[in-house]
Amino acid sequence: MSAILHKLREEGPRRTAAAVWRRLARPLHKMRTRHLPAYRDPTDAELAFVERQLGERGVRCGDYLADRTAFAAFKQRLRFPVDYHGGEGGPVYEEKLLEHFVAWDLLGLSERKERWPYVDIASASSPWASLLRAQGFEAFSMDLAPHPSLAHLPYTITSDATACPLENASIGSASLQCAYEMFAGDADVRLLAELARILRPDGRVVISPLYTHVEACYYQSPEHAGRPLGDAGAVGYVRRDAHDVPCSRKYSPQSLVQRVFEPAQRAGLRPSVLVLRNKRQLGAGVYLHFILVLDKPTGAGA
Q1: 248: part of which helix (H) or strand (E)?
Q2: Buried b / exposed e across 170-181, counting CB within 10 Å, b at 16+?
Q3: 54 alpha-carbon distance from chain centroid
Q4: Residue that wins the pLDDT comparison between 1 and 11
Q5: DSSP letter string over 64-104?
Q6: Tens of pLDDT, residues 113-134
Q7: H-type helices in the chain, by residue range?
Q8: Torsion of CA 111, 113, 115, 118, to 10 degrees
Q9: pLDDT tens, 53-91?
Q10: What is the dihedral of CA 44, 50, 51, 52, to 10 degrees?
Q11: Shortest CA distance to 280 belongs to which of 48, 49, 102, 95?
Q12: What pLDDT is recorded for position 1?
């Protein structure tokens, strides 16, 4: 009972009731979608194939080796809540902390003052911006529907990231952690133009993971399966162990070039892809592979 009362206080009766209803309806949706094809993650061989195909299309993937000592120091300095994503020992805890470390590292947040202010885009319930501000950094979070516990904070921006209230050339950097794949329809393309607008020259955005597969595809959790949210021509799947996922996009090499690289370049950004080469050394459950980096060249206009 105390857990229910805590949830009511934290999220309010309407959100709590909706969450309870979704949980009760899950078996029905799983039954409804039992004949639909199930999604599976790409194998190491398929990820290598994607990398080769990107190279043939002019996208050379760079190497990224996450420094294990620096990662350990990061975890000590930026102390995430003990229950974050299931807590230490949970199946994705190290992965989620690693995604934030990658942004911290590749943006140079601790060394490069020109990368501030920073915005955590599609932040949902993440404490990341709060942790950064506790370190004295100028950080903001942005989400279309931020968690009620964060929505009232003065550094939370409640907005569609593809059409946000930030001024031209007003931020030094931004990142998305496990979020870009949820920008359904043409929102992934529109976000690139908006990032180009709000970034200062020499600004940078890091997106991790950059989800790919051998074919352009997407998955939906059972309660959303069948809704027409995937890209035209992309193959749809259901992921039965997922919840509340309207559409999670996986780029093929061709669609990545067409939907990300070419629009980013037209918007005035310089896109590049890195590959995490030492994920097996970084902890249980780490699956991060491709990382998208978007740079706004020095001298570029707003």
Answers
A1: strand 248-250
A2: ebbbbbbbbbbb
A3: 21
A4: 11
A5: E---HHHHHHHHHHS---TTGGG-TTSTTHHHHHHHHHHHH
A6: 999 999 999 999 999 999 999 9
A7: 2-32, 44-56, 68-77, 93-107, 128-134, 148-151, 187-198, 253-256, 262-266
A8: 100
A9: 999 999 999 999 999 999 999 999 999 998 888 888 888
A10: 110
A11: 95
A12: 41
C-alpha to C-alpha distance for 64 and 95, rounded to whole angstroms? 15
The verdict on whether omega for the bond into residue 117 sits within 30 degrees of 0, i.e. cis, is: yes
Q: Give pLDDT tens digits for 194-238.
A: 999 999 999 999 999 999 999 999 999 999 988 999 999 999 999
Contact 98, 287 (CB under 8 A): no
Region of 223 (left: φ > 0; alpha: ψ -120 to 50; beta: rest) is: alpha
Q: What's the length of the chain?
A: 302
Q: How distant is the alpha carbon of residue 17 from its chain centre?
A: 27
Amino acid in the structure at residue 80? F
Residue 27 has pLDDT above 90, yes or no: no
* pLDDT, position 32: 72
What's the rounded Cα separation, in Å, for the pair 113 and 33? 50
